[in-house]
Each structure stands twice: as C-alpha cells, then as structure tokens.
Amino acid sequence: MGITYKWNPIISMARRSAGVPDWLVQRLAGDPVEVDGRVLNRSVQLLIELGERSGQNALEGQDVQERRANMSRVARIGMPVATDVHVYERLMDGPESQIRLRIFRPHGSGPTPPAIVFFHGGGWVVGDLDTHDASCRVLACASECAVISVDYRLAPEHPFPTPVEDCLAAYEWVVAHGAELSIDPGAIGVMGDSAGGNLAAVVALLARDTETPAPVAQGLVYPATDFTTDTRSVELFGEGFFLTEESRTWFRDHYVHDPAQYSDPKASPLVAEDVSGAAPALVWTAGFDPLRDEGCAYAEKLEKAGVPTHYRCYDDLIHGFFGMGTLPGILQIIEDMSAQMGELVRSGAR
Hints:
Elements: E1 5-6, H1 9-16, H2 22-29, E2 34-35, E3 38-39, H3 42-54, H4 64-78, E4 81-82, E5 85-93, E6 98-106, E7 115-119, H5 133-143, E8 146-151, H6 162-176, H7 178-181, E9 188-193, H8 195-208, E10 218-221, H9 232-237, H10 245-255, E11 281-288, H11 292-304, E12 309-318, H12 330-347
Helix pairs in contact: 5-12, 6-8
C-alpha cells in the first residue's frame, strides 16, 4: 500500500503539469554539470540555479537567526506531508532541562512497533522538529516504525558537547520508557541526516559502552564525521552545490568553539580508535556533497571493524536531498531509504 501525501498547492500544480521542458531547463540552468565523473541531476541543477538567483539557500545568511529562518522557510516547500501517521509530542527530563520529543506512529503499525530515534540535521545550529517533520513522517510510514524526533539544544547557545549529551539522554530515555511509549524495547535504532547523522553515529558508539542496551541499527544520511581533515569532495564541491565550504566552516565554528576538540571522537567519530561492536549501519551519501568522502570513509571504517555496513552514494544528488521530496524521483529514494532502515531495525531486534 502506498503512502498518502498532502502536497503544497503550487507543487501539486507543477506535478500535474507536463513538468519543466528540457529547453527551459537548458535555458535556466545551462549545460549539464559533470564533476568527478558524475553528472548532476537536472532537477537539482535547476533548483540550485533558481536558489542562487533568488537568494533562497537555506544554509546561507548573515547570522544565526537569519539562517534558522531561511531553513524553516525552505523546509515548508521541500517535502509533501504524509498523512498516514499519528503525530504527538511529549517532554522528557534531559541533562539540564526538558527535551521535547515528537513521536510519529504510522497507521497500522501494530501495538508495539520497532522505533527509530531521529536526530535532525542543520549543522547543530539550525533545524528543529518542524524542519524535519515531513521527512520523519515519510520515515515512519515507509519504515513501519515509530519515529521519535529529538529537539536537542542547539549551538551556539549550547555548543559541543551539549547536543551529544541531549541526544544520548534521549536515546536512553526512549529505551527505558519503551513500555510507556508502546514500542518494542528490543528493536530501537538511531538515525539522522548531516549533523544529525553525526549525532546518530556518536550515540551509537557511546551507547555501546553504557549499561543501556545499544541501538540495533544506525542510519546515517550524508553524515558529518570528521572535523580534522579536508577531503577531496570538500575541494570539489565546496562551492555551488547547496552546502558550501563557507557554511560548513560556519557551522563547525558555532558548534565546536575550541579547535582542540575537533579530534574528540564525540565530535569526529571517524577518528575514534575503535568502532567495533557498533550497531549495524546504513550509510548514504550524495555525489555532489562536500561531506561525501567523510561519510564514505566512516562506512569503510565500520566495515573494516566488522560492523555489518551497507553504503550507497546517490551519485547525481546534493547535500540535503532527504528533505527534497518535491523534486522528481527523490521522494521514491527517501521512501526506499526509510524502508531499508525499517528492515535493518527489525532484523536486529533482540
């Protein structure tokens, strides 16, 4: 059974039309972009071009509040809204203050479904429960899991390691309150995109070494894994492909105030000495993303340590595609990734 969506009226009108003709894409976006043996998706190329002309890059801005507003505005039109899901919120006691959780239960998932604790992206500085609400709805429906999205505290007001501490506390709280949440306490995974992928990877490592049962799966969507080294993908895609090197540096500096902490595994999981015993992993990257190579390197590190790992690079896409379901073909990719995560969580159930 397919997922039922509610579409933004403008996007819905565009989808019912014949689409953007090739000649108009050519006129607006120019010739196809090929870098490093990859050809950029033409719809994504047009989106980038229109964004540059209108100044609507969600990750750009003069200050923290402007960037937060930009991301919120763009997120409202980036995804359709899946309606086959029940959504509610609750509060949990965090390390220093209460943390808001948004819980997504897909219709027909049964009395105690598996669960995915989700950490949103946004460079540890922007993003919130609302910017990732639509993506979490798709994740819940396609995975057939309950999804618990975590409103962890953001930098620069709450810099590293506060987001890590909040996310670990949220994961531990969900495990401890599985019966109360009506989820399967033996089938809980962690997942996140970008900065959230970083946090999911770190939580998977930290939980491995605590008395709390470790997650049974980790899903890392174009994760940031290393503050210590610039990769070839940073050099190739640091300009013109949504996430720029300027933005990447801006987010890093707002999150980790002391450069000496870049090599802390809680900030850069790629430099962790031992990742063996971590949860089985799904790692997805984008071909035109500055974070591509560090995501790939982390998948390789997990695999070499004996962690069951599946890696996939979507060669023609850019950073942020997990929230770009209004573009042709990408919603199906998001559904497929979500279904894979659900399968991994169920396969690892204790």
